[in-house]
Specification:
single chain; 133 residues; mainly alpha; globular
Length: 133
């Protein structure tokens, strides 16, 4: 089950990172329309905060790191996936140079790495705690 969730999250992350900017804005408007706090987001203009995209990158890669850690219990496979996910972050940033309205950013790659590390640590902590109890 963890591997299926991981690959679904990987595909969704790929799509989100390579969508043209107008489509990202349309998706944001759609999501805000059904979120209970969507009106608050528009009123506070939180989504236009200069670094909001860094939080999105961190969150997406935290999910990927956590799912990879949960899906592959063998340490050597985990490490391979962690490196692959770092490469995935670099690759998708590079590809954004050809996506309308998007541009590559080293800060986004750093946010990806931070999120990956966060997801790995949190997942590892829960797995380790679950093995004790």
């Amino acid at each position: 089950m963890w591997r299926v969730l991981f690959f679904v999250a990987l595909v969704l992350t790929l799509v989100a990172l390579l969508l043209p900017a107008p489509d990202v804005l349309a998706l944001k408007a759609w999501a805000a329309s059904w979120l209970p706090w969507g009106r608050w987001l528009d009123q506070e203009d939180v989504t236009h905060w200069a670094h909001a995209d860094k939080l999105v990158h961190t969150g997406m890669f935290a999910v990927l790191g956590g799912l990879a850690t949960s899906a592959w219990r063998d340490r050597s496979w985990r490490v391979r996936w962690w490196w692959a996910l770092l490469g995935f972050g670099v690759l998708t940033e590079g590809l954004q140079a050809w996506v309308p309205g998007r541009s590559p950013s080293g800060a986004d790659v750093l946010a990806d790495a931070l999120g990956l590390g966060l997801g790995v640590v949190v997942s590892w902590w829960f797995l380790r705690d679950g093995q004790r109890g």
